[in-house]
Design goal:
This is Haloacid dehalogenase. InterPro entries: Cof, HAD-like_sf, HAD-SF_hydro_IIB, HAD_sf. GO terms for molecular function: magnesium ion binding; phosphatase activity. The chain is α/β, with parallel strands linked by helices and 270 residues long. It has eleven helices and 14 strands. The chain has an eight-stranded mixed sheet, with helices on both faces. The chain has a six-stranded mixed sheet with strand order 8-7-6-9-11-10, with helices on both faces. Strand 7, helix 5 and strand 8 form a beta-alpha-beta unit. Helix 2 runs parallel beside helix 11.
Length: 270
């Protein structure tokens, strides 16, 4: 019996226009009414999650895993109940890695702010910030450090060709120091070592008293792999990458055809 549903957002819960299909809202409400815990599990920061959570019409006794596992919030008062942060030394290492790639921008996601490290904010970075209802601000590392703000994760952003070159040159080195993943064509992410959606989901499930076989996870991208491996019922979207499909037990329809709702009605509410 499924007692917890962990759901990725972009490419999974949200359609290609980043809207919430009505069918998904209904399915999640039905599951919650049946006593199933709903956990959004996303790379997004709080600014890009809370508006969607409010549209779902769920109770205030849910949890959200954000920043690819770096932060966990309880939705009653949106309290930060668990987190992992990048140290100042790690920020220096991340900055040094991009020195030879001027067309790739290091961005930092803090508890309150979205930073582009440098003197200006590239258009691509501001576009990405807008997707999570935020505004990126240019800042030096010294300014970020002086703010004493918790920095959850870093993202390198650039056009695909430039980011491909950066990844070829730096990914192996970064992967020895951070949890690193290419989450999108224009984003390469770096989290504190050992931090992933899957690790955060495992810890939250244990704290709530749920076994892996009582958990269903749905996703579409490489940063969903570990949570899909953890869940007893793992579901890949039809629009998921080939790797995600290979590591999932079940396949559902695409994010543009309310695949989340179909999976919930089939595996949880049938």
């Amino acid at each position: 019996m499924i007692k917890l549903i962990a759901i990725d957002m972009d490419g999974t819960l949200l359609d290609s226009n980043r809207e919430l299909p009505a069918e998904n809202i209904l399915a999640l409400q039905r599951a919650a009414q049946a006593g199933v815990k709903i956990v959004l599990c996303t790379g997004r920061p709080k600014s890009g999650v809370e508006p969607y959570f409010n549209k779902l019409g769920l109770s205030d006794n849910e949890y959200v895993i954000m920043n690819n596992g770096c932060s966990v919030y309880q939705t009653k008062n949106w309290d930060l109940i668990d987190y992992a942060a990048l140290s100042y030394q790690e920020l220096n290492t991340l900055s040094q890695a991009v020195q030879d790639f001027p067309e790739v921008c290091l961005t930092l996601t803090g508890q309150q702010n979205y930073y582009a490290v440098g003197e200006t904010v590239p258009e691509l970075v501001q576009y990405d910030a807008g997707l999570v209802f935020a505004t990126a601000q240019a800042a030096s590392l010294d300014k970020v450090k002086k703010s004493s703000e918790i920095i959850f994760q870093a993202m390198y952003m650039g056009e695909k060709r430039q980011l491909d070159a950066f990844q070829r040159a730096e990914a192996q080195k970064l992967s020895r120091l951070f949890s690193a993943v290419r989450s999108q064509d224009y984003i390469f992410e770096a989290m504190p070592m050992g931090v992933t959606k899957g690790k955060a989901l495992r810890k939250l499930s244990q704290n709530l008293g749920f076994r892996p076989e009582e958990v269903m996870a749905l996703g579409d991208a490489p940063n969903d792999l570990e949570m899909l491996r953890f869940a007893g019922v793992s579901v890949a979207m039809d629009n998921a990458s080939r790797l995600v499909k290979e590591h999932s037990r079940y396949l559902t329809d695409s994010n543009d055809k309310a695949g989340v709702a179909k999976a919930i009605f089939k595996h949880v509410l049938s």
